[in-house]
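Suppose you are handed a protein chain with no further information: no name, no annotation, nothing but its sequence. What can you learn? This example shows the usual starting point.
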Amino acid sequence: MRKARSRPSEPEAGRLTNRDLKNRSIRTAAIVLITTALFAASFLWPFDNIGIANAEDELTYHEDVEDAVAEMREAMKERETEVTIGIIGTTDQDGLRQSISELLDRATEHTGKPDEGDYINFQYASYKGEARTTHSGALPAIEIKYDLSYYDNAEQEAAVSAKIDEILDGLDLERKTDYEKVEAIHEYLCKNVKYEEAESSDDVRRTAYGALVEGRAVCQGYCVALYRLLLEAGVDNRVIFGNGVGPNGESAAHTWNIVDLYGDYYYVDITWDDAAGTEEYFLIPAGAGFEDEHIAGEEYDEDFFTEEYPVAPEAFAGDVMGSFDKIIWAAQDLEAAVLNKAAKDAEEDA
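A reasonable first move is to predict its three-dimensional structure. Written in structure tokens, the prediction is:
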């Protein structure tokens, strides 16, 4: 099950920070195996030399936990299925158990980079984790081993990146305001993606690959595609997981986004907009009824999240901030035109 996370605190040397955990229905995690180096040599991992880096695949032991997090994040971006992370330090049995989920949670935290954060978090399907204490030379160390599965693969991710370049070039977003970027990307996805229920054997519909390359997705695929496209365009947003409530009161697992416009976030449910053929769920403020139909998971109702991502209390009043951008751009264009004419005149006089 997916584990919820609290606001990160400063890590202790050689140990990950503690976090509260909760379940999410779209993610499964196996019961972890915990042992110490004393017993690991005989049965836990098929290493030739327990506690000594394998000469063919040398393991780096990180003194800084942030470096371990970065290595884990990069491995997940590359869709690696078997990952082992080494950290200098020691801990007790509870610390080993916590380290498995904590490292994974930290590796999938929102960074503002398009192919990280929620994009990874909603594209990996499950994990199994093992942790043990060992030594790196004379120093005590921890090794954490993961078996990971994803809804997509590295080849499909490469196709997504190429498709995104094509989409953004076609939308010509360079001189658009943030509002115009959100509107253009929302419109593109509604026109080019079809909602299609995912079968258990067809998880690609949960992915940006399903949405952008194959043109078919469920809510998760819509949301990660929107997340990545907006971040590529320079607009911050988050994917929210919870339950959608239907007209008859029925509830089912659902995802949507919150999108930043000039410092305030607004709700966007692109899946329901596409299904209805409207913009009923586009840039909705708090208190306008959206929350009655979208029940966010506990993690997204905690103070640390709502304070960092405040949903606007009032409806979006129009692209006022964007109007200032256009005034500045017009002034820059005028200045460039004047300088260009002056340069041409100088050439003719020479």
